[in-house]
Amino acid sequence: MKNTILLLFVFTLCSGAFFSCQDSDQTNASPVSDETMARLVGLGFDVKNFVPMKFDDGYLVEGDIFVTDADLAVMKPAGRVPDVEQYRTTNLVSASTVRTITMYAQQGTCNSCYSAGMIAGLDLAIARYNAENLNIRFQRLTTSVGANIVMTRLRKGEEAQGILGSAGFPTASGNPYNQIKMSGVLESKYGLSTAGIATIIAHEMGHCVGMRHTDYYNRAISCGGSISNEGDGGVGAILVPGTPSTATAAAKSWMLACTDGGDRPFNNDDKTALNYLY
Ligand SMILES: [Zn+2]
User: Fold this and answer.
1) Distance between Cα 268 and ligand 1 center (Å)
2) Which tens digits make up the pLDDT trace of 40-71?
3) Nearest by Cα to 200 from 267, 105, 265
4) What is the pTM assigned to this prediction?
5) Which of 39, 146, 201, 246 is the most exposed place for a label (fewest CB within 10 A)?
6) Domain boundaries, the chain
7) How far is the CA of 10 from the centre of ligand 1 (A)?
């Protein structure tokens, strides 16, 4: 991905189709300036169904896209984009032979630590990828030293707002994105099962290795609300051959933009996409 453009997709519980939307929390968040709002509207972001809010050192728009002022300065409105099949970013992880991607998440009782249940979800997500016998393999380390992807907790306020996780896309040099920010309350606050937690972590891992949302061209498929297209996003949205002509919520792809909190193991089309790329 271009260094100048950093789009982080996070998976929110703000899904009208399945969960009640966290509108009250969003409206309590810091508003963005009129100038920024005008820029977001000009770029085609949906600011009505998803009120933009300040997030980290940038803004969270459409509920799950993170952009900074630097991003907004160079982004252009999306042109016409394809509306079929599954999608990857321009950059992928270099893996002409089997490559192991190491991961680390801190387990324990500290504020920034994950519960055993969250770690079990991470382990299941890793097992799901490894069961596909891809050229990328994942391995969890018990120390952060040497980890390719570190999973760290969101801030308390972000977790309280219903944000579930965020990640980025592979680098131009062919390395996976190196950080997943993940809520630590998927089990304790939302009662998600290990499989449900694994689904969300696997989704963010998917972004790290170059997967776009299956329904990126119309997030309403999984999120509800009005038609909303994430566009090229500056990172590319390239068709993956052999995947179906349209996304449906019923197919339960692990890369749908919004979650229902349930289990979404790789469906056949997900497996086709992963095996084609890796
Ligand atoms: Zn996502």
Assistant:
1) 19
2) 766 666 676 667 878 777 777 766 566 778 76
3) 265
4) 0.75
5) 146
6) 1-278
7) 5
